[in-house]
Amino acid sequence: MVTGRQSSGRAEPSPPPPLSCDPGQKKPLSAIIKEVCDGWSLANHEYFALQHADSSNFYITEKNRNEIKNGTILRLTTSPAQNAQQLHERIQSSSMDAKLEALKDLASLSRDVTFAQEFINLDGISLLTQMVESGTERYQKLQKIMKPCFGDMLSFTLTAFVELMDHGIVSWDTFSVAFIKKIASFVNKSGMDISILQRSLAILESMVLNSHDLYQKVAQEITIGQLIPHLQGTDQEIQTYTIAVINALFLKAPDERRQEMANILAQKQLRSIILTNVIRAQRAINNEMAHQLYVLQVLTFNLLEDRMMTKMDPQDQAQRDIIFELRRIAFDAESEPNNSSGSMEKRKSMYTRDYKKLGFINHVNPAMDFTQTPPGMLALDNMLYFAKHHQDAYIRIVLENSSREDKHECPFGRSSIELTKMLCEILKVGELPSETCNDFHPMFFTHDRSFEEFFCICIQLLNKTWKEMRATSEDFNKVMQVVKEQVMRALTTKPSSLDQFKCKLQNLSYTEILKIRQSERMNQEDFQSRPILELKEKIQPEILELIKQQRLNRLVEGTCFRKLNCRRRQDKFWYCRLSPNHKVLHYGDLEESPQGEVPHDSLQDKLPVADIKAVVTGKDCPHMKEKGALKQNKEVLELAFSILYDSNCQLNFIAPDKHEYCIWTDGLNALLGKDMMSELTRNDLDTLLSMEIKLRLLDLENIQIPDAPPPIPKEPSNYDFVYDCN
């Protein structure tokens, strides 16, 4: 550790010898600071502190001193308490220039939790909110003559506020209605400075997500109509924060309010505006925007959950009328019997026959088919939508199947119910959005009734696949499996429209699925004869060693991990990588997602592999046991792992995706001499074993390998052919 005294923003060379930075030393931090101050002949050592000399400027405390590594450059500077006191006074200066400079320093220093705690202890948050609430009128007069200064001043004030609140020290419930109104006014006002607008949107999002009371107050101040113009601009970051606020309002709205809000979004043509100005804009969609679009997609589909979990009431006439309407549209051309004697019996008989043609399981009372949840009433809603909006296709499917033999007909009713259930599983209807997923589908933003249209395409696919498979009623589950594979494969290509999705499905006929399956089966062929099994057993250790080396090489390359807090932010990243000699993990914070390789010397923190006690995953991770909505998310749990070291110390991770999760857990287990147990390892082992065996058996092509070794031949009658070489 190199020390220096701060003077005019520069660290002067220090006359005393450099101090040892051994993290295991027991000397109190105050004693070390006193030693440095004595070397500089500085009195009142309690007014000083040590600080990282890098761009982070974080203070050193007893709590984090063990994280300092040898070679880290520190500087002697004003203590956080003194600094907080000085800034608290400076931001109240009557000089605009002094106030602006103080707010700029405050915005920078507030990222450090040690400084933040001291500033908050001085009631600094209240001071900032008062400046925003009461200072604006005064600033408005100044704005006319010094607009840039006003914009910068307010921007730094809001930045400092956001950074201070991000530490989770102060509850969001403490803010007044006046403050909320003022922040909302910055969002509602046109022509507002970009940086002010961005931070105001971020504050509103955090308020809604962190406090039910504030959600209600924000919802009164902000309308969808006032947010829409921000989506029509060209700044993707503003668009991202705007959609984040809409998502937060959507997520926290009471159940009875969500459908009303969805109707407002439809009236304001939010979907169309997002499609035009975001998805189809002439620029790449960054990860944060992709995440917010995914969240909006999930929340929109979750509106279907109520219908999905609602059973049909066989006694409800309005619900029964929907089934009558399905029958009427399909068989309208057929004449109704007259109301003569016995006509009621004839009508019942005809209805039973028609319901059988419609493919219901219960021909007498088809309402009973919709008592299973999921999909409940959602299946019936989809069937009615298909019958009304794609009437020709509906009638064709029903009549086409009713003209086939009973065993070869594709039951429309049963198929629709099972298909609706399957589509809900694929789209995870009813599940909370993941904090890490970016998997949105552009095609769902191209239609106001995208789920219903999705169903209509898939029900026609199911009927087509049924015919291609020449299926019978016994093959129903097989057909559903093929249809699910067709839909999943088409979705992975991320079609940009529903028409493009339909074209993808056209190319994924049953014949094509069979070819794909056969190709995959050949690639993963598992030879079961004893000689092959013995060969597998022999070469498996070599393959496992190869996989282990690949995992360790990937750890040496390193991975960028996102820091998640109560409000997702783009600028929170950290990087971790293994040293080339496999002895140390290097890690540290990054300002942005890295482009290319991150050098070791830029990662300030180190963790010797020898200090690692264990690697835990999922619910066993310390950061998954903490209180918070994020920790309850199933997908986040599946990506979480932690390294435990020393006593009560841990390094917590949330992998960017399942692949990276498997790479890191495998690599860390390999470093600890444990088995690599991930699904990725099993798949890699199967693939590499299959390839290696095929390579070794190339010379034996078309030769049948026996299950048992050949018999040992009889001894020869004489040994005259043996020669003594001596």
TrEMBL record:
InterPro entries, A to Z: ARM-like, ARM-type_fold, ELMO_ARM, ELMO_dom, ELMO_domain-containing, PH-like_dom_sf, PH_domain
Keyword list, A-Z: Apoptosis, Phagocytosis, SH3-binding
A Pfam family hit: ELMO_CED12
Span list, region Disordered: 1-25
Superkingdom of the source species: Eukaryota
Keyword rRNA processing attributed: no
Transmembrane is among the record's keywords: no
ELMO domain ranges (all copies): 318-491
Function: Involved in cytoskeletal rearrangements required for phagocytosis of apoptotic cells and cell motility. Acts in association with DOCK1 and CRK. Was initially proposed to be required in complex with DOCK1 to activate Rac Rho small GTPases. May enhance the guanine nucleotide exchange factor (GEF) activity of DOCK1.
Name this protein carries in UniProt: ELMO domain-containing protein
Source organism phylogeny: Eukaryota, Metazoa, Chordata, Craniata, Vertebrata
Gene that specifies this protein: ELMO1
